[in-house]
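pls ignore typos typing on phone
CU-O-CU linkage + seq
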Amino acid sequence: MTDGKVSIELSRRALLGGLASFGGSVFVGTSTRGLADTGSVRHLIARPGTAALRGEGHKPVSIWGYNGMAPGPVLRLRQGDELRVRLENGLQQPTTLHWHGIRIANAMDGVPHLTQELVEPGQSFDYRFTCPDAGTFWYHPHKFSSEQVARGLHGILIVDEKDPPKVDQDRLLVIDDWRLDDNGQIHRASFGSIGERAHGGRFGNTFTCNGSTDHQVPVKAGERVRFRFCNVANASSFALRIADHTAHVIAIDGQPVTPFEAHDGVVLLSPGQRLDVIVDMTRHPGSVSSIQLLGFEQPVALGRLVYAKDGPVRTDPLDTPIELPSNPLATRLDLANAVDATLTMEGGAMGGMRGAKVDGVFLDMRRLVQQHGYVWSFNGTAGMPDEPLVRVKRGQTVRLRMNNNTSWPHAMHIHGHHFKAIGDNTGDGYGSVWRDTIVVRRGQDLTVAFVADNPGKWMLHCHMLEHQEGGMATWFEVQA
Ligand code: C2O
Ligand code: CU
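k done
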């Protein structure tokens, strides 16, 4: 599919879906070009739709998506601006919207029962908040998320820097894995599988970039392109590469990093993570380079950069800086006076967990599974506890030790704050950078720290969504 076709297809769908009222304030497509915030309310309707994941030659896949599309509309605004979104629930089950990575006002965080009540079928909820940080973020449901996200409910939120690095194109690469059955439809019987909860989670068999198994990015020789990767898969970590090109990482999880060259051009993203890279189009006009998913016997091509036939837009690559302006994040960690918390993870297959508490009552493994579908615990409790892991005063530094006593890696995500690993021992090799999600490898004991400067009740959970639903969830409180 060419870009032209994509936008025609999308506008046709937009009309069919009665989305004319969206005007220019949201836009979709493969490029991130679009209108900046107009201050108007954007509508996101969680509803069934279809997606031509494998191209026009295949039967479309029935999905659930925001405005019937997967990925959903790209929301874009300027740093410091206010976003207003009305979520309408057109599903047959409750939902909410969570704004992953936004250091948001707590009441807008979208966590059922902790920050808001569920949005029932037919109901709506108005989200309204400012985005303090520029960067690449995303939104997704926070109820039944292992099914709702897997069916296609996810979208990207871009917050523009006031003064971004100069690029010729700004492009999203939203990476997903879908599990399709023999009929090419979403495999439904496996939703809620206890076995998958207790293992690595739900893995897909069909890999897409921006909702296509063959996503094409038209480029010109000599251009500089900013790519924004986002891993929206339930449980898979991805190693990705744009073949034949050098990539410089400029941001991780929406936060700027000192630019560095990706080792072998490979970037790693755990579920929920984003990564911004700058890539110069150094090949000849007419070239084609694939966007690859690694870690299989052969690289899986998710799409291609397709160079125009006509001459380079410039002969020498740009020498303008690629470093992003910093975000207003509290980066001074007062470790000497930090509040300490420990999170011990237990359970899962080959974990030897005997049982765990739910609502203060100890249940053996059999009861835990039968009554609650839980197979994991944090500090001996499965699922959201009544009491927070820790309660701190606004502005205090929290030092959180995460002790993975299981046989599986876990992608730990903290709401409302960005944190940093203490020490460089991170599985992705990115080391001690600000981020909102980090993989704790099996058997690993990893300590992170952050400034708890955002008041409210914040969730902390494994972003392998089956693990989250299988019990790996807790929360902490920042008192104003
Ligand atoms: Cu991306 Cu609590 O989630
Ligand atoms: Cu996990």
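The mean pLDDT is 92. The helical segments are 3-16, 145-148, 194-198, 365-372, 465-469. more later
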